[in-house]
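Budget justification aside, the reviewers requested a transparent look at the raw inputs and outputs of the sequence design task funded under Objective 1. We therefore reproduce one unedited record. The lines immediately below are the structure tokens for a 187-residue chain.
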């Protein structure tokens, strides 16, 4: 997460993320800008009460699992899937991210399995590697662009229905990673 936000080399210590919050402005392909408020829970259940309050405001969500860890994927399919259904807006945009593609030899969750779960739930899907930055920016950019397009579409519909709309240039993005602790220092 840090390397994507700061667009520099990874400053990864091997420690898991613990409830970090960022506010960052991104330029869209059309030249416009959108400000994203980003909460990275790191899969820390200790913050569930706070998470749920944040979920209710979120416009989009990044749900991350470790492709080398079956429990990580199961946690996404069960616990976080229910959290999204029970606590998020019904039209929230979600991208399911299979991380650690640099560890292909240790893969336990196939690309097809991740893609199938994403498709069944109308989530976007990408596989990434934080270690070598493969597809990380693309995953975020895809979600941000699709969410922004959805917000613009809703604003136009509201305007056509004579609803007063406020100029909105901010979206809330929630990031959830579920990784078991490992002896290896992988992100």
């Amino acid at each position: 997460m840090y390397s994507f936000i700061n667009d520099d080399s990874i400053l990864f210590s091997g420690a898991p993320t613990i409830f970090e919050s960022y506010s960052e402005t991104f330029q869209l392909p059309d030249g416009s800008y959108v400000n994203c408020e980003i909460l990275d829970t790191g899969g820390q259940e200790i913050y569930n009460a706070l998470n749920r309050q944040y979920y209710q405001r979120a416009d989009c969500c990044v749900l991350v699992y470790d492709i080398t860890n079956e429990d990580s994927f199961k946690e996404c399919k069960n616990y976080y899937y229910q959290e999204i259904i029970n606590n998020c807006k019904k039209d929230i945009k979600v991208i399911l991210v299979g991380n650690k593609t640099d560890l292909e030899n240790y893969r336990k969750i196939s690309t097809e399995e991740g893609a199938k779960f994403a498709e069944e739930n109308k989530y976007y899907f990408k596989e990434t590697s934080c270690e070598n930055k493969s597809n990380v920016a693309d995953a975020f950019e895809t979600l941000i662009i699709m969410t922004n397009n959805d917000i613009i579409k809703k604003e136009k519909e509201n305007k056509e229905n004579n609803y007063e709309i406020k100029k909105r240039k901010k979206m809330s993005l929630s990031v959830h990673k579920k990784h078991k602790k490992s002896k290896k220092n992988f992100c």
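The first strand starts at residue 20 and ends at 27. The domain at 36-156+168-178 is CATH 3.40.50.300 (Rossmann fold). Computational costs for records of this kind are itemized in the attached budget.
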